[in-house]
């Protein structure tokens, strides 16, 4: 009976040691779980902040694109007006050449109109390039937002 008692005590000691070891493991796992939760919450907050920042940038880029479109439309209109003036100046120039009267003035008007037309054309091209650049930026942001949606979907599926 004493041997059996000693054997049982030994088993009880081993079980207590095993229980303490498992309790330590449990505490470590609970601590790690809490750390992971905190880390995940921070990552979620960072991701939300990034999404908000991207949305703000998208709104700003949209406003810029709208301004660029308006500017391009105005420049196109001005370009058309200047081209009409140029045509009129050329017609006037031709009429003056036929009559040999006021040739120098017509040439000067045509040259001024041509220079203005070239300036507007150059300005129009630059505005159109800006508009295209803004559109490319908007496309990039839209693709980024799609990627963020996919990441959040994967995160939700993983939980």
Low-confidence stretches: none
Report the biggest beta sheet as strand number plus sense, adding barrel if it closes.
none
Measured as a percent range, the helix fraction is over 70%
Q: Looking at the structure, what is the overall shape?
A: rod-shaped
The number of helical segments is: 2
Average pLDDT works out at: 87
Number of strands: 0
Concise summary:
With 159 residues, the chain is an all-alpha fold. It has helices spanning 2-99, 103-158. It has a domain at 1-109.
Explained architecture:
97% of the residues lie in helices and 0% in strands. With 159 residues, it is mostly helical. The protein starts with a helix and ends with a helix. It has a domain at 1-109. It has two helices and no strands.
Layout of strands and helices, then pairs:
Layout: H1 2-99, H2 103-158
Overview features:
coiled coil; rod-shaped; mainly alpha; 2 helices; single chain; ENTR1; 159 residues; Endosome-associated-trafficking regulator 1
């Amino acid at each position: 009976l004493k041997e059996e008692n000693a054997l049982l005590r030994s088993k009880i000691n081993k079980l207590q040691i095993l229980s303490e070891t498992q309790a330590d493991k449990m505490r470590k796992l609970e601590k790690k779980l809490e750390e992971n939760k905190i880390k995940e919450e921070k990552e979620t907050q960072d991701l939300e902040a990034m999404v908000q920042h991207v949305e703000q940038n998208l709104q700003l880029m949209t406003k810029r694109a709208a301004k660029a479109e308006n500017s391009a439309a105005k420049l196109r209109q001005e370009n058309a007006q200047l081209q009409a003036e140029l045509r009129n100046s050329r017609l006037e120039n031709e009429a003056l050449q036929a009559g040999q009267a006021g040739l120098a003035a017509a040439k000067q008007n045509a040259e001024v109109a041509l220079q203005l037309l070239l300036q507007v054309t150059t300005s129009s091209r630059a505005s159109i390039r800006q508009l295209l650049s803004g559109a490319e930026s908007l496309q990039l942001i839209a693709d980024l937002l799609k990627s963020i949606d996919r990441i959040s979907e994967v995160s939700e599926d993983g939980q």
